[in-house]
Amino acid sequence: MEKIVIIPARSGSKGVPGKNIYPVGGHPLIAYTIAVAVLSSHIERVIVSTDSEEIAGIARDYGAEVPFLRPLEFARDHSSDREYLLHAMQWVQDSEGHVPEYWVHLRPTTPLREVEIVDQAILEIMKHPEATSLRSGHPVPESPFKWFQKDANGYFKGIRPDDPRPEYYNLPRQAFLPIYVPDGYVDILKASFILNSESLHGDKIFGFVSPSCVEVDSKEELEILEFQLSKKGSPILDYLNQSFP
After folding, report:
1. What's the pTM value of the predicted model, to 2 decimals?
2. Pure H helices in the chain
Protein backbone atom coordinates (compact mmCIF):
# COMPACT_ATOMS: atom_id res chain seq x y z
CA MET A 1 0.00 0.00 0.00
CA GLU A 2 1.44 3.36 -1.03
CA LYS A 3 2.90 5.61 1.67
CA ILE A 4 3.49 9.30 1.12
CA VAL A 5 5.34 11.86 3.22
CA ILE A 6 3.72 15.27 3.67
CA ILE A 7 5.96 18.08 4.95
CA PRO A 8 4.22 21.32 5.96
CA ALA A 9 6.25 24.47 5.40
CA ARG A 10 4.29 27.70 5.33
CA SER A 11 6.14 30.99 4.88
CA GLY A 12 4.85 32.87 7.92
CA SER A 13 6.75 32.48 11.18
CA LYS A 14 6.56 34.97 14.00
CA GLY A 15 9.32 33.56 16.23
CA VAL A 16 11.96 33.02 13.54
CA PRO A 17 11.23 34.63 10.15
CA GLY A 18 11.95 32.15 7.36
CA LYS A 19 12.37 29.37 9.91
CA ASN A 20 11.70 26.47 7.53
CA ILE A 21 14.57 27.48 5.26
CA TYR A 22 16.85 28.94 7.93
CA PRO A 23 20.43 27.73 7.28
CA VAL A 24 21.64 25.12 9.76
CA GLY A 25 24.91 23.28 9.22
CA GLY A 26 25.09 24.72 5.71
CA HIS A 27 21.63 23.54 4.63
CA PRO A 28 18.09 24.92 5.02
CA LEU A 29 16.20 23.45 7.95
CA ILE A 30 13.62 21.74 5.74
CA ALA A 31 16.36 19.81 3.93
CA TYR A 32 16.90 17.56 6.97
CA THR A 33 13.29 16.36 6.94
CA ILE A 34 13.25 15.90 3.17
CA ALA A 35 16.44 13.83 3.45
CA VAL A 36 14.92 11.50 6.06
CA ALA A 37 11.88 10.96 3.84
CA VAL A 38 13.99 10.33 0.73
CA LEU A 39 16.18 7.83 2.60
CA SER A 40 13.24 5.87 4.03
CA SER A 41 12.85 2.40 2.56
CA HIS A 42 9.05 2.53 2.92
CA ILE A 43 8.19 5.88 1.33
CA GLU A 44 7.21 6.20 -2.32
CA ARG A 45 6.69 9.98 -2.54
CA VAL A 46 7.69 13.14 -0.66
CA ILE A 47 5.40 16.16 -0.98
CA VAL A 48 5.94 19.58 0.57
CA SER A 49 2.84 21.69 1.26
CA THR A 50 3.80 25.37 1.18
CA ASP A 51 2.37 28.73 0.22
CA SER A 52 5.82 30.06 -0.80
CA GLU A 53 7.47 29.86 -4.21
CA GLU A 54 10.87 30.29 -2.51
CA ILE A 55 10.32 27.35 -0.17
CA ALA A 56 8.92 25.32 -3.08
CA GLY A 57 12.08 25.90 -5.11
CA ILE A 58 14.37 24.91 -2.24
CA ALA A 59 12.28 21.81 -1.51
CA ARG A 60 12.52 20.69 -5.14
CA ASP A 61 16.29 21.25 -5.09
CA TYR A 62 16.55 18.78 -2.20
CA GLY A 63 14.41 16.11 -3.84
CA ALA A 64 10.81 16.77 -2.79
CA GLU A 65 7.75 17.25 -4.96
CA VAL A 66 5.76 20.48 -4.75
CA PRO A 67 2.88 19.80 -7.16
CA PHE A 68 0.72 22.63 -5.78
CA LEU A 69 0.95 25.75 -3.65
CA ARG A 70 -1.09 25.77 -0.47
CA PRO A 71 -3.98 28.27 -0.56
CA LEU A 72 -3.40 31.23 1.74
CA GLU A 73 -6.49 30.46 3.81
CA PHE A 74 -4.75 27.25 4.94
CA ALA A 75 -1.42 28.97 5.69
CA ARG A 76 -2.39 31.42 8.42
CA ASP A 77 -1.11 31.42 12.02
CA HIS A 78 -4.24 29.69 13.25
CA SER A 79 -4.77 27.30 10.36
CA SER A 80 -5.16 23.74 11.57
CA ASP A 81 -3.14 20.73 10.49
CA ARG A 82 -6.32 19.11 9.21
CA GLU A 83 -6.96 21.96 6.77
CA TYR A 84 -3.73 21.65 4.81
CA LEU A 85 -3.65 17.86 5.05
CA LEU A 86 -7.20 17.59 3.75
CA HIS A 87 -6.32 20.03 0.95
CA ALA A 88 -3.30 17.92 -0.04
CA MET A 89 -5.27 14.66 0.01
CA GLN A 90 -8.10 16.10 -2.05
CA TRP A 91 -5.67 17.64 -4.53
CA VAL A 92 -3.94 14.30 -5.09
CA GLN A 93 -7.26 12.49 -5.36
CA ASP A 94 -8.71 14.99 -7.84
CA SER A 95 -5.53 15.33 -9.92
CA GLU A 96 -4.39 11.71 -10.00
CA GLY A 97 -7.57 9.73 -9.51
CA HIS A 98 -6.51 8.03 -6.28
CA VAL A 99 -5.11 8.95 -2.89
CA PRO A 100 -2.47 7.00 -0.90
CA GLU A 101 -3.79 5.58 2.35
CA TYR A 102 -0.86 6.32 4.65
CA TRP A 103 0.37 9.92 5.02
CA VAL A 104 3.55 10.24 7.05
CA HIS A 105 3.45 13.70 8.57
CA LEU A 106 6.95 15.09 9.19
CA ARG A 107 7.41 18.66 10.38
CA PRO A 108 10.61 20.51 9.38
CA THR A 109 10.95 21.81 12.93
CA THR A 110 12.06 18.36 14.12
CA PRO A 111 15.12 17.97 11.90
CA LEU A 112 17.21 15.28 13.62
CA ARG A 113 15.40 12.01 13.12
CA GLU A 114 16.70 8.52 12.47
CA VAL A 115 15.46 6.98 9.24
CA GLU A 116 15.17 3.57 10.87
CA ILE A 117 12.81 4.91 13.53
CA VAL A 118 10.53 6.52 10.96
CA ASP A 119 10.48 3.22 9.06
CA GLN A 120 9.64 1.37 12.29
CA ALA A 121 6.65 3.69 12.86
CA ILE A 122 5.36 2.92 9.37
CA LEU A 123 5.60 -0.82 10.00
CA GLU A 124 3.84 -0.44 13.35
CA ILE A 125 0.73 1.27 12.01
CA MET A 126 0.47 -1.26 9.20
CA LYS A 127 0.35 -3.99 11.87
CA HIS A 128 -2.62 -2.22 13.46
CA PRO A 129 -5.26 -1.68 10.75
CA GLU A 130 -7.83 -0.73 13.40
CA ALA A 131 -5.79 2.38 14.35
CA THR A 132 -7.10 5.69 13.04
CA SER A 133 -3.62 7.24 13.22
CA LEU A 134 -0.18 7.01 14.83
CA ARG A 135 1.45 9.69 16.94
CA SER A 136 4.91 9.74 18.44
CA GLY A 137 5.72 10.78 21.98
CA HIS A 138 8.59 10.47 24.41
CA PRO A 139 8.30 9.62 28.11
CA VAL A 140 8.50 12.48 30.60
CA PRO A 141 11.20 12.17 33.29
CA GLU A 142 8.84 13.44 36.02
CA SER A 143 5.10 12.76 36.14
CA PRO A 144 2.93 15.88 35.83
CA PHE A 145 0.65 14.27 38.44
CA LYS A 146 3.26 15.40 40.99
CA TRP A 147 2.73 19.04 39.99
CA PHE A 148 0.84 21.73 41.92
CA GLN A 149 -1.70 24.36 41.18
CA LYS A 150 -2.04 27.51 43.29
CA ASP A 151 -5.32 28.33 45.02
CA ALA A 152 -6.87 31.77 45.53
CA ASN A 153 -5.01 32.19 48.85
CA GLY A 154 -1.63 31.44 47.35
CA TYR A 155 -1.29 27.87 48.63
CA PHE A 156 -0.08 24.94 46.55
CA LYS A 157 -2.62 22.16 45.99
CA GLY A 158 -2.21 18.91 44.13
CA ILE A 159 -3.76 18.81 40.67
CA ARG A 160 -5.55 15.54 41.49
CA PRO A 161 -7.84 16.44 44.42
CA ASP A 162 -9.68 13.10 44.15
CA ASP A 163 -6.54 11.00 44.57
CA PRO A 164 -7.13 9.05 47.84
CA ARG A 165 -3.44 8.64 48.64
CA PRO A 166 -2.25 11.10 51.34
CA GLU A 167 0.19 13.59 49.86
CA TYR A 168 0.25 11.52 46.69
CA TYR A 169 2.42 14.19 45.04
CA ASN A 170 5.33 13.13 47.28
CA LEU A 171 5.23 9.54 46.05
CA PRO A 172 8.06 8.31 43.79
CA ARG A 173 7.47 8.58 40.05
CA GLN A 174 7.07 4.80 39.85
CA ALA A 175 3.75 5.22 41.69
CA PHE A 176 2.24 6.88 38.61
CA LEU A 177 1.40 5.59 35.15
CA PRO A 178 3.90 6.56 32.44
CA ILE A 179 3.09 9.82 30.66
CA TYR A 180 4.22 10.69 27.14
CA VAL A 181 4.76 14.11 25.59
CA PRO A 182 3.61 14.27 21.96
CA ASP A 183 6.46 15.42 19.75
CA GLY A 184 7.14 16.00 16.07
CA TYR A 185 9.20 12.90 15.42
CA VAL A 186 6.62 11.15 13.25
CA ASP A 187 2.84 11.14 12.85
CA ILE A 188 1.02 8.87 10.41
CA LEU A 189 -2.48 9.61 9.16
CA LYS A 190 -4.96 7.58 7.14
CA ALA A 191 -6.66 9.16 4.15
CA SER A 192 -9.68 6.84 4.40
CA PHE A 193 -10.35 8.19 7.89
CA ILE A 194 -9.70 11.89 7.28
CA LEU A 195 -11.67 12.07 4.05
CA ASN A 196 -14.70 10.53 5.71
CA SER A 197 -14.72 12.28 9.07
CA GLU A 198 -14.34 15.68 10.71
CA SER A 199 -11.30 14.56 12.68
CA LEU A 200 -7.56 14.28 12.07
CA HIS A 201 -6.25 11.60 14.42
CA GLY A 202 -9.45 9.89 15.52
CA ASP A 203 -10.05 7.98 18.74
CA LYS A 204 -7.65 5.09 18.11
CA ILE A 205 -4.28 6.78 18.10
CA PHE A 206 -1.51 4.21 18.13
CA GLY A 207 1.15 5.42 20.56
CA PHE A 208 4.64 5.20 19.10
CA VAL A 209 7.37 5.78 21.69
CA SER A 210 10.09 7.93 20.15
CA PRO A 211 13.41 9.27 21.41
CA SER A 212 13.38 12.78 22.82
CA CYS A 213 14.21 15.18 20.02
CA VAL A 214 15.17 18.78 19.33
CA GLU A 215 12.15 20.81 18.21
CA VAL A 216 12.86 24.21 16.72
CA ASP A 217 10.46 27.07 17.43
CA SER A 218 12.84 29.86 18.46
CA LYS A 219 16.21 31.38 17.60
CA GLU A 220 17.63 29.89 20.80
CA GLU A 221 16.57 26.39 19.76
CA LEU A 222 18.18 26.92 16.36
CA GLU A 223 21.41 27.78 18.17
CA ILE A 224 21.10 24.62 20.29
CA LEU A 225 20.59 22.60 17.11
CA GLU A 226 23.63 24.17 15.47
CA PHE A 227 25.72 23.43 18.58
CA GLN A 228 24.53 19.83 18.68
CA LEU A 229 25.42 19.31 15.03
CA SER A 230 28.87 20.85 15.52
CA LYS A 231 29.62 18.60 18.50
CA LYS A 232 27.95 15.31 17.57
CA GLY A 233 27.29 15.51 13.85
CA SER A 234 24.41 13.65 12.22
CA PRO A 235 24.04 10.92 9.56
CA ILE A 236 21.46 13.16 7.89
CA LEU A 237 23.91 16.06 7.76
CA ASP A 238 26.54 13.69 6.33
CA TYR A 239 24.08 12.66 3.59
CA LEU A 240 23.26 16.30 2.80
CA ASN A 241 26.91 17.28 2.61
CA GLN A 242 27.68 14.37 0.28
CA SER A 243 24.63 14.81 -1.95
CA PHE A 244 24.37 18.61 -1.95
CA PRO A 245 27.90 19.97 -1.46
Report:
1. 0.91
2. 29-39, 53-61, 81-96, 115-127, 191-194, 219-232, 235-243
